[in-house]
Amino acid sequence: MGKKAYWLFLAMVLTLGLLAACNGAEEDVEGEPDDEDPDVEDEEAEGDDGEDGEDGEVAGEPQEGGEIIIGQTGDPNNFHSAYMADTQSTDVADMIHASLLRNNDEMEMEPDIAADMPEVSDDGLTYTIELQDDVYFHDGEQVTADDVVFTYEVFLDEDYTGPRTTQFEYVDSIEATEELEVTIELTEPDAALEASALGFEIMPEHILGDVAADEQEEHDFSTSDEVVGAGPYEMTEWDYGTSITLDAHEDYHNEGPYLDTLTLRIAEDENAVLAMLQAGEVDHANIRPQDVETAEAIDGVNVVAQDGYNYNYIGWNHDRPPFDDPDVRTAMTMAIDREAIIDGVLQGHAEPAHFPHHPMSWAHTDEVDEVPYDPDGAIELLEEAGFEQNDEGQMEWEGEPFSFELLTNQESHARVDWVVVVQEMLADIGIDVQTDTMEFGAYLDRIQTPNYDFDAIAGAWALSVYPDPEPLFHSDQYEQGQNNIRYDSEEFDELAEDNRAIVDEDERTEAVQDAYAQVAEDQAYTFMYYPDVHQAHIDEIQNFQMSPESDYYRVEEWWLEE
Amino acid sequence: MTTYIIRRILMTIPILIGISIISFGIMQFAPGEPTALDLDPNISPEDREEQLDEMGLNDPIPVQYVRWAGNILQGELGTSFITNRDVGSMIWERLPNTLVLMISSTIMTMIVAIPIGIISAMRQYSARDYVFTFASFIGVSIPNFWLGLMLIIFLSVQLSLFPVGGVGTLGGDFDILDRLHHLFLPALVLATADMAQMTRYTRTSMLEVKNQDYIRTARAKGFKERRVVYKHGLRNALMPLITMFGLLLPTFIGGSVVVEQIFTWPGIGHLFLESTFQRDYPVIMALTMFGAGLVVVGNLIADILYAIVDPRIEY
Q1: pLDDT in tens, B102-146
Q2: A310-533 adopts what CATH topology?
Q3: Which end of chain A is least crowded, N or C, by CB within 10 Å?
Q4: Which of A14-23, A279-288, B59-68, B78-87 bottoms out in mean pLDDT, i.e. has the lowest?
Q5: Which first-to-last residue range defines the signal peptide (chain A) (predicted)?
Q6: Do A310-533 and A67-283+540-560 have the same topology in CATH?
């Protein structure tokens, strides 16, 4: 009998495994961080603002009241600013919490609970921030400098085990110099401080003050509807796996909130959200590119498209010749018709990419030569690099027909589709490509330290609003960082190194732009495209806005037309 | 009987230990780590390493296993790496949903499958039998994710007869009719394949019994056909089915992974899937052991019921 039970159990595990594998394709990987993430699906980061969007503009004075239901995939996990790491959490936290500074629709920082932008001393080492005097937490307590100091001290606490210490590596001390004034002293100038550290959500000291830093992550405050913030909405109920209810915070310090109640309806995947939208059960949802047509066909629903703040790429393993040769990588790019992939696989919902950051960002420059689609030129370039075309049209490298493996993760439908198109395009110039797809965790294990077991990978990066080229491309970042393709360029290292320490804004912009341009020139990656992202909402929602920063950008300023 | 049950229960202990060791090992050997999914270049490798340390994932696997087993024996399921919530309460709040789904689909299965199986058997090779046979082959063959999606598209989206998903209408108070309304489609989809299978088993079982001497004797005694079939036939035919139900119990968790996913049913199956992708080890282990427990208990129940139904069986 024991044997029988054991075999049954094994059979069950196998069945479950199979089921999970079948289903995996439908499932977006959870636990995604808010910044750069290779599993960014096309719907992951949100597009632009609503100002120049296609959306119906403000039709009159905002009206207060009303309720909308938002379709969301997956539960958030944590609302503590020092411990959040996935987009589900940060998107919801954005509604609940307020921070010193926030992003505006041009991806620049603007004051949120701060009265003004920080005053920075000439040496770039002292930041003084005044707070607004009318900011209140949901429970009525005023937000003071003490709350700010309390929040930041969690990051600096030696018991802190969360993922965010780099943002604070140059912070020496933080002090409440007045009731509503905070002073931060740095050990070295840090240009990224405003955009990174000052964007963290302020936690209430009167609730968490007595909890040790390493216990706050598991505190009910962080993991349940007991969360309290100073943001536009207050969480009144969180029914795990089902819904989250948020009510308007009447004492909110900025514009809004107009809608009385937001209900987040938690669905298991995008298919379920789409069906709910079709059935009229939700009023707002993210839409994947392949579902845009379906969503547009729904009566009374408006689909808004914006540039996504992320890009897809092919990363060549520079440790494996001939991909160490920039000319070979450039030739690969020349052989890939990105426009055709955008039209064929993405139904035109993307822009071709030529640069490691987004055109919207200050880090972007047009001063790079775009690599054109030119298969004949690609063959020529390969021949110059030592390839030879044999009688059967195959490209030979060191006397053997050249062949490599292009690997990607199975969760992104678009990528799984386009790697096959790339395979065909490279076959046209005589290069044999094998494609392989793996589950995300297994894929990461294979491509990262210490394995680096790949010829080329198809991936995506969500982009940060405070771009720092170092972590991805600096040669130091190979053993322990994210430069798993082993891009190794002295020019780049010199340009990018210590860019955060440059106090002068223009100077830093130039350094970052030049560093990125170097990456583009060397074709460390083949940059594929910036996908569009889409959101659908019912026509009655007015002043709808979109931003890469959050799925529910400025939701407090949306309102319902009666 | 009592000694048999006690012996059986004691035997489950080494089984569960063995299962836990194997699954703990398999889980650890699977590529990927809980922190690997936080692929933010702004999270430094040192921070990541520290998080692994804090989770205890840098210790040797046997050490981790012993620590885990120690906690389990004290009733501590641990804290999820991803949600930082107590694993016990994460499972506990989802368990009722899965149980409701399992139980209702089992009831549906029995209500449909047993009568149809009997009719099929009693009227073997009749037109009705062929129709049922045909239908049950369709039922077995339809993948339940496909059936679920089709039902959602036609009945929910186009005809608006049923909700698209969820356990109940949001914001409303508990309303049994509303709950049943939400429950119907997922339970039906989950039941479809089982119905088809159980119909076949009932039919086969009934056929065997039909030609037994005691049925002929009962008929010869002049009992009504009804009494012959239900009292003498069915009771004996059901015996193998009881074992079947016992063995079906754990498969409900497997089946519910797909159905819960499609119908946005916040149950155990979805939690299992999610935690696997996130490498949320404490949750995976808790659910695996839960599944293993179900297999063992399912077997035990089947054996005990068997003894009750068939007085000839003695232990």
Answers
A1: 889 888 988 998 889 888 888 888 888 899 989 888 888 888 889
A2: Dipeptide-binding Protein; domain 3 (3.10.105)
A3: C
A4: A14-23
A5: 1-20
A6: no
Over chain A, what is the mean pLDDT?
A: 83
Burial readout A360-386 (b: 16 or more C-beta within 10 A, e: otherwise): bbbbbbeebeebebebebbbebbeebe
CB contact under 8 A, B8 and A471: no
CA distance B150 to chain A (A): 11
Amino acid at A158: E
- What is chain B's percent helix, strand, coil content, to nearest 5? 75, 0, 20
List of residues 6+ apart from B137 with CB closer than 8 A: B196
Place of tokens 């308007």: A248
Tens digit of each residue's pLDDT (9 = 90 or more) over B160-185: 899 888 888 876 677 888 889 999 99
Please identify among residues 211-230 of chain A the ones whose CB lies closer than 8 Å to any CB of chain B: 214, 217-218, 222-224
Are A57 and A323 spatial neighbours (Cβ–Cβ below 8 Å)? Answer: no
| Set of chain B residues whose Cβ sits within 8 Å of the Cβ of A279 | 156-157, 160, 163-164
The better pLDDT of the pair A122, B4 is held by: A122
Does the pLDDT of residue A278 top 60, yes or no? yes
ipTM score above 0.85 = no
Under 8 Å between Cβ of A460 and A311: yes
Question: Which pLDDT score, from 0 to 100, does residue A546 have?
Answer: 86
**If you measure CA to CA, which chain B residue comes closest to A82?**
B43
Homologous superfamily in CATH for domain A67-283+540-560: Periplasmic binding protein-like II (3.40.190.10)
Higher local confidence (pLDDT), A273 or A467: A273
> B62: buried, middle or exposed (CB in 10 Å: 19+, 13-18, 0-12)?
exposed
What CATH number does domain B87-309 carry, 3.30.420.10, 1.10.3720.10, 3.30.460.10, 3.30.2310.20? 1.10.3720.10
Q: Binning pLDDT at 50, 70 and 90, where does residue A337 land?
A: very high
Residue B239 CA to its chain's centroid (Å): 21
Which residue of chain A is at minimal alpha-carbon distance from B43? A163
Domain residue spans of chain A: 67-283+540-560, 310-533
- Is the pTM higher than 0.80? The answer reads no
Structure tokens at A408: 């990607």
How many Cα atoms within 13 Å fall on the side-chain side of residue A345?
Answer: 24
Separation of alpha carbons A335 and A371, rounded Å? 10
Do B296 and A48 contact (CB within 8 A), yes or no? no
Tokens of A15: 């069945």
- pLDDT tens figures, B260-304: 888 888 888 888 888 888 888 899 999 988 888 888 888 887 777
From chain A residues 133-172, the ones with a CB under 8 A of any chain B CB are: 161-167
CB A546 within 8 A of CB A49: yes
Alpha-carbon gap, residue A360 to A520, rounded angstroms: 17
**Average pLDDT of the residues in A44-55:** 38
Q: How many residues make up chain B in this entry?
A: 315
